[in-house]
């Protein structure tokens, strides 16, 4: 008698989330979904389907449209989903993709109710699905020319540095800095700043650590939560900086306690989640910490020089 096997066994799951075999469907094909799906295709991403329950059979912004994710996966072999669905329905859209057998979900939507995300996180953990976001810019992999989200492509070049960031704007600044120094990027992941994000810093750092193309890492964090401290603990435990230099910057050092700064998760409460505490944990792990974002590119270049990788 055959044993039952989880469907996730058959999901295509690249080490760094995406690769040449990534086939993307788009949920939420309003103006933003259509605009960014067009830019993704122009960059080289295989955008194979759109989802709209009332427009199945139509072509929307060059994409064949299906009523459900399940049907789109069956007909197009889509294995990744990009979500622009407005906040009230975004969690349901994530759940639909997870239950349809998609291995990677990138959710751009912000302001999703936290109680909805608690349920989503439990489900993606159970199914073994990678969730990036919500409230994030997405990810880009210059080598394979795959982009999922709203990240601008013109500042990226294929290269050696993996970037993981809670801040969208600082993601772009770090990418531009590494392009300017000639280092380029292996994969850039904007994990978003919500309290119940899918992938956290430590999850992405582990992948960068295992990836031979990623020779250095930039970690950009914010006040609030413990994602950066958790990453620092893993980096220290595994002596990562002996093999791959890590440079970090924590935004929000001057934020007053109790006041949310930008992202929903960027808040210092009960004395926890301070920039000073995160910097201390990272430095103790051997990470070089920048106190100004303009130093990120210089620091990672210098650290790569020390290991003879420039």
UniProtKB/TrEMBL annotation:
GO terms for cellular component: hydrogenosome lumen; mitochondrion; succinate-CoA ligase complex (ADP-forming). It catalyses: GTP + succinate + CoA = succinyl-CoA + GDP + phosphate; succinate + ATP + CoA = succinyl-CoA + ADP + phosphate. One of its GO terms (molecular function) is succinate-CoA ligase (GDP-forming) activity. The keyword Methyltransferase does not apply. Its EC number is 6.2.1.4, 6.2.1.5. Pathway: Carbohydrate metabolism; tricarboxylic acid cycle; succinate from succinyl-CoA (ligase route): step 1/1. The active site is at residue 263. PROSITE patterns: SUCCINYL_COA_LIG_1, SUCCINYL_COA_LIG_2. It comes from the Eukaryota. Substrate binds at residue 172. CoA binds at residues 55, 108-110. GO terms for biological process: tricarboxylic acid cycle. Residues 17-112 form the CoA-binding domain. Its main location: other. The keyword Acetylation does not apply. It is found in: Hydrogenosome lumen; Mitochondrion. It holds the Pfam family Ligase_CoA. Keywords: Hydrogenosome, Ligase, Mitochondrion, Nucleotide-binding, Tricarboxylic acid cycle. Succinyl-CoA synthetase functions in the citric acid cycle (TCA), coupling the hydrolysis of succinyl-CoA to the synthesis of either ATP or GTP and thus represents the only step of substrate-level phosphorylation in the TCA. The alpha subunit of the enzyme binds the substrates coenzyme A and phosphate, while succinate binding and specificity for either ATP or GTP is provided by different beta subunits. Belongs to the succinate/malate CoA ligase alpha subunit family. Heterodimer of an alpha and a beta subunit. Different beta subunits determine nucleotide specificity. Together with an ATP-specific beta subunit, forms an ADP-forming succinyl-CoA synthetase (A-SCS). Together with a GTP-specific beta subunit forms a GDP-forming succinyl-CoA synthetase (G-SCS). This is Succinate--CoA ligase [ADP/GDP-forming] subunit alpha, mitochondrial. It comes from Coptotermes formosanus.
